[in-house]
Design a protein that fits this description.
2-enoyl-CoA Hydratase, Chain A, domain 1, four-stranded mixed sheet, 11 helices, 10 strands, globular, binds ligand LZKTLF4L
């Protein structure tokens, strides 16, 4: 695999987002690789948990601005948004424990990946932000609906409308982070935490995830399709075009 480093350890699968040069930004290749891992592992009846992680600098920095933002029409970008939204819906509905382990930036779509997991474990230096608004767009992968369900409508709207960046501690206080773990030996702290979450038999884990999923389905459908639609419409705005140009100009200027 080019964009992910994956391995299984006992009954836990580990998926590391691995595009360090671009702070683990999600491109089409990563979406394809993540689809194939999730669709293979979801049928592993021995697996109890999946942990998603990045590196000390970034969990995931959102969609790949260089790749995604070459498309300017809503008809071009909607299928890409919907595809990743459907994948995060699949992850959210997995009948095993899902964990986002965050040490660095989880921004934009990276924050949407975080809230599609059952648990978020973070180091105090982690940073979270639904920064799509800074690009003049909305979430596109279902993250707005999941954030509202996780931290409540008012705080979620504050994060979505301001694009504020929260430290690990602030994100714990706001309810995005479920446990803060020491930066030193973060990975082994994550392993011990996951061990506690997965001492139950596979059948018990799958049963409780089915209960959680049923409640969510009865309460409301996932919002990823609506969000992908809104994101695609905003994609054509001048605000979005200008924000992307300024990001790409900054990147080019650094190279000169
Ligand atoms: C529905 C999802 C939605 C969408 O897909 O449109 C979104 O996710 S919108 C949000 C898209 N993401 C961003 O706008 C974040 C952009 N990145 C940053 O703000 C920073 O890179 C940050 C805060 C994540 C990390 O800052 P740091 O100072 O640690 O690193 P640099 O900014 O110097 O970046 C290093 C290197 O990585 C490239 N990079 C970072 N993020 C992205 C990205 N999302 N897409 C493409 N490339 C990215 C950055 O340009 C630098 O490249 P270099 O060639 O080394 O200059």
């Amino acid at each position: 695999m080019q964009t992910l480093v994956v391995h299984k350890q006992k009954q836990t699968g580990w998926i590391r987002f691995h595009r360090p040069d671009v702070r683990n930004a999600v491109n089409l290749a990563m979406i394809g690789e993540l689809e194939s891992v999730i669709r293979e592992w979801k049928n592993d009846r021995n697996l109890k948990a999946i942990v998603f992680l990045g590196d000390e600098r970034a969990f995931v920095s959102g969609g790949d601005v260089s790749e995604f933002h070459q498309w300017t029409k809503k008809e071009e970008i909607f299928p890409v948004m919907r595809r990743m939204g459907a994948l995060l819906e699949e992850i959210a509905r997995l009948e095993l424990v899902t964990v986002a382990a965050v040490e660095g930036f989880a921004v934009g779509g990276g924050c949407e990946i975080v809230v599609s997991c059952d648990f978020c474990l973070a180091s105090p230096k982690a940073k979270f932000g639904m920064i799509q608004v800074n690009l003049g767009i909305t979430t596109g992968w279902g993250g707005a609906g999941r954030l509202m369900r996780k931290i409540g409508r008012t705080r979620a709207l504050d994060c979505l409308l301001t694009g504020r960046i929260l430290s690990g501690e602030e994100a714990k206080e706001w309810g995005i982070v479920d446990a803060l773990l020491p930066e030193d030996g973060f990975r082994s702290h994550v392993e011990s935490y996951v061990e506690k979450l997965t001492k139950a038999p596979v059948s018990v884990i799958r049963a409780y995830k089915q209960v959680a999923d049923k409640i969510e389905r009865e309460r409301e459908q996932g919002t990823y399709e609506l969000e992908a639609e809104h994101c695609a419409v905003c994609w054509e705005s001048d605000e979005h075009r200008l924000a992307v140009e300024s990001f790409l100009n900054r990147t080019r200027a650094k190279k000169e």
